[in-house]
Specification:
This is Platelet-derived growth factor C. The protein is 15% helix and 40% strand. The chain has seven helices and 18 strands. α4 packs across α5. The longest helix is centred in the last third of the chain and has 12 residues.
Length: 329
């Protein structure tokens, strides 16, 4: 409803606009190409004051050499129009990889300052969009700098320490591990064993003028078990009773038993990826099984019931998984 017409026409016009060069910045009608030779800043118009309405600006940052990578760091002063239903629809800034068009992140509001971003190649795009309603302040300011890759390893991607990742990216990465040990190795690969020991060391707490010793024990809470319970009961094959007439779409017959138990996927998918807006518990492995039942059918001419034992095929879900089904699907 708030989407800008200028944004939708950006891609089609961006390569045809006339360009000019000034102080290392090539400007076109919709895109500014910045030659990155050192440190610099990209900021919303009028930062740190209220940015203008109905604005679309794209900066293409290009490092001087193919082996260079570009790091982006957001100024703590950050504020754009708030999200709607946790989605940045109206005013936002986003960072994109030019190759493949992969969006590394889109941000708005003022509650959280985006974390550092590092390009996978020697280019990176920054896009700022504002609509005609509710401009905010102070906008945003992004500091960019060069990360030099060693010439002997030109293909190696820039590795970002786990602590430098944004909250969303770090949360999603941690959620993918099965054990506490894997989590600690990911967060601190050089000292994970020390951190594991620190987690379970006894702690002292103060209550008024008295002291008591509270000992943490591995036997009190097993975090690995807690995670396993969530995995087992969130989205799994479970027993459902189905009506044979409805399941087989047979309105001409009567079955006994009229209902049978089958395995079907069930459970919620609350722990899907944060960028998935429609997550469903879906089957990933399906088997057809045959069940012997009594089938009754009226004989032609109304001469009683025909009774036969017959095998009916029913679909069973053997494996389930939370699957993202966005509108684009």
């Amino acid at each position: 409803m708030h989407e800008s017409v200028a944004e939708s026409s950006l891609v089609s016009k961006i390569h045809h606009a006339s360009t000019k060069q000034q102080n290392g910045v090539h400007e076109s009608q919709h895109e500014k190409v910045v030659s990155v030779t050192g440190d610099g800043i990209i900021q919303s118009p009028d930062f740190p004051n209220t940015y203008p309405r109905n604005t679309v600006i794209v900066w293409r940052l290009v490092a001087v050499t193919e082996s260079s990578r570009i790091q982006l760091t957001f100024d703590p002063r950050f504020g754009l129009e708030d999200a709607e239903n946790s989605i940045c629809k109206y005013d936002y800034v986003e960072v994109e990889e030019p190759v493949g068009g992969i969006v590394l992140g889109r941000w708005c509001g003022s509650e959280m300052v985006p974390g550092p971003q590092v390009s996978k190649g020697n280019q990176i795009l920054i896009r700022f969009v504002s609509d005609e309603y509710f401009p905010s302040d102070p906008g945003f300011c992004i500091h960019y700098s060069l990360l030099q890759q060693r010439q002997s390893e030109p293909e190696a991607p820039a590795v970002m320490p786990a602590w430098m990742q944004g909250v969303d990216a770090l949360s999603e990465a941690v959620a993918g591990f099965s054990t506490m040990e894997e989590v600690m190795k990911y967060l601190e690969p050089d000292r994970w064993q020390v951190d594991m020991e620190d987690l379970y060391k006894p702690t002292w707490q103060v209550v008024g003028k008295s002291f008591f010793h509270q000992k943490k024990s591995r036997g009190v809470v097993d975090l690995n078990l807690l995670r396993e319970e969530v995995r087992l009961y969130s989205c799994t094959p479970r027993n459902f009773s189905v009506s044979l007439r409805e399941e087989l779409k047979r309105t001409d017959a009567i079955f006994w038993p009229s209902c049978l138990l089958v395995k079907r996927c069930g459970g919620n998918c609350a722990c899907c990826s944060h960028n998935c807006y429609d997550c469903q518990c879906s089957p990933t492995k399906v088997a057809k099984k045959y069940h012997e039942v009594l089938m009754l059918k009226h004989r032609a001419g109304g001469r009683g019931l025909q009774k036969t034992l017959t095998d009916v095929p029913l679909e069973h879900h053997e494996e389930c998984s939370c699957v993202c089904k966005n509108d684009s699907d």
